[in-house]
Amino acid sequence: MKKLLLIALLSNLTACGSEDVFDNKDEQIDINYAVTFSAEPYDIASPVYKFTAIYTENDIVQSADNLIFDWSISLETEGEITSLYPEQSTQYQFTDTATYKVKLTLINDTGEQLAKFSRNIEITADDIATGPVLPKAVIDITNRRTSTYVFNSNLSSYSQGPLSIFSWIIEGEEFSGSEISHNFTKMGPQEVHLKVTAEDLTQATTMTSVFVVNETTTPIAEFNYTKDKLEVNFNAAESSNQSSDITSYQWDFGNGDTASNIYTSTTYSAEGPYDITLTVISTEGVTSTKTKTINVYEEASYVTCDVLTTSSSIFKSTDEGQCFSTSPITTNIAAKTWCSEKVKQYKDGLPFYRITPTLTWQIRQQGNNECS
């Protein structure tokens, strides 16, 4: 029967932790793996914490060579919110008041989980208010084609001085430089970690996830729009493609106008329905099209419905004297429907001896055409 070794976490922080110990049985040697970590704030009250892992085998501290430190931070209500730079000592700046769970999983170079440990960290409003000035790490994807990506850190910044070191971890490999190119060997969701270091040795880390494929995919064309009377603004930012970037956006607004930007607009000369077509083209030249029908109108506040003519000359003046009014109606289509219903009610209310007339009518805008 193996004896599990429990490693007690010594810390002056008020936090709770839990530890899982994994046994790895060998024919001759039993090894009990365990991992814990300390959590130290940047200052007495600070939202920035430094986490340092301690790894043991049979209660003896070991080096971290060829091991992966998989850190994650989660909230009970949201689940995992981010993962940290995968090294033995890492840091994180909390941005909101809450109780967070910080979890560390120790993984060997074959992908086997050796041990896990987690603890809760409570961040208060005072902690957030006293945050230090740190660099900002930003990952930008400047090019991608199937499994090959180019990552750039040029949007990273530090108000106190220049950044001097750019460190990356992708698929367990370490890279350096402000821009790197990487050909993924694994498909599906992958994490890309960046750590920037300033000349005064302050650091910041960030992570982004990418979905890697090894074949050319068909892009998805999608767009949204907002209307202001006859002017419509279009946004194709929700268009996407897994294997590469979208390099072309071609618009047909249904009124003879076209455009070729991801964000664009057009102004229609008249109300009515229009078919909007967006065509996107990927880096590989694959196209995809999306068409939507939109209704545009002037929002002119139609309030008056006038009967204009009748098929019966005997009652012509009587019928043409009819005028109906309402509170403002902002769409031409709705106003026409309302007016048509009013004319129908008028005809239905005529005396039985009347020959049913054929009436025409028009709607008028608010201002000087209300019924007197």
Which structural class do the helices and strands define?
A: mainly beta
- Characterize the biggest β-sheet: 9 strands, antiparallel
Radius of gyration: 34 Å
Regions with little confidence, pLDDT below 50 for 5+ residues: 1-16, 21-26
The sequence of SSEs as H and E is: EEEEEEEEEHEEEEEEEEEEEEEEEHEHE
Total helices: the number is 3
CATH superfamily of the largest domain, by name, is Immunoglobulins
Distance between the termini: 101 Å
Helical fraction: under 10%
The number of distinct β-strands equals: 26
CATH fold type of the largest domain: Immunoglobulin-like
Second CATH tier, the architecture of the largest domain: Sandwich
Number of domains: 4
Describe the global form: elongated
Mean pLDDT: 87
- At the first level of CATH, the class of the largest domain is Mainly Beta
